[in-house]
Specification:
The protein is built from 6 helices and 11 strands. With 195 residues, the chain is of the alpha/beta class. Strand 7, helix 5 and strand 8 form a beta-alpha-beta unit.
Length: 195
């Protein structure tokens, strides 16, 4: 083998996640300062190859109750919480509010699991934009260098046509045949701080 071919092979083996990078999302809200993006399928592969990698779910517990939970989840801390007092007329639904204890709760879980600044952290929300991306940016500010966002999230994208148009049934963790359940591991499930 030539020296350059050996160098490429060595680099590929030394950085297995480089080959898994998903395309940079078009929406600015889904982009991160680290520019590390994976699909749910790629996230699964990373978790299988790296026993120290951690999957972090930042969805609201109510969402998880009704849509399911990835079996591989290591940390569950919601970035935002449902706010029944905030009706959003435009969406014809309830709004969300920031989890005021998010940083402290996430950092406590990362410390408990002995995460290093170069530990692979894979952050997932529902569809991969307004929650996972800001969490990745927060982790980057804290010095984490391998914080990835799952671009298709847990539920994936919406169907564009048919009788179920608008339903999130395209890609994502749940729709990619990856292991998930409605049963939530009580050791991982987020519990609000007692006031």
């Amino acid at each position: 083998m030539t020296r350059s071919l050996l160098a490429v092979l060595a680099l590929t083996l030394a950085t297995p996640t480089a080959a898994l990078a998903a395309d940079k999302p078009q929406k600015a809200s889904a982009q991160t300062t680290l520019d590390l993006y994976v699909t749910a399928q790629e996230a699964w592969q990373m978790l299988q190859k790296d026993e120290k990698a951690l999957l972090i779910d930042v969805r609201d517990p109510i969402e998880i109750k009704f849509t399911g939970f990835a079996n591989e989840t290591d940390i569950h801390v919601p970035w935002k919480l449902a706010a029944p007092e905030r009706w959003v007329e435009k969406r014809s639904s309830w709004g969300m509010k920031a989890n005021p204890d998010f940083s402290a709760q996430l950092n406590a879980k990362l410390a408990e699991l002995k995460a290093e600044k170069d530990t692979t952290l894979i952050v997932m929300c529902r569809s991969g934009s307004t929650r996972s991306a800001p969490v990745v940016n927060l982790l980057a500010k804290q010095g984490y260098t391998q914080a990835w966002t799952v671009v298709d999230g847990f539920e994936g994208g919406k169907l564009k046509q048919g009788s179920s148009k608008g339903v999130r049934a395209v890609n994502g963790w749940r729709n990619s045949g990856l292991p998930w359940s409605y049963k939530i591991d009580p050791a991982i499930a987020w519990k609000p701080a007692v006031q």
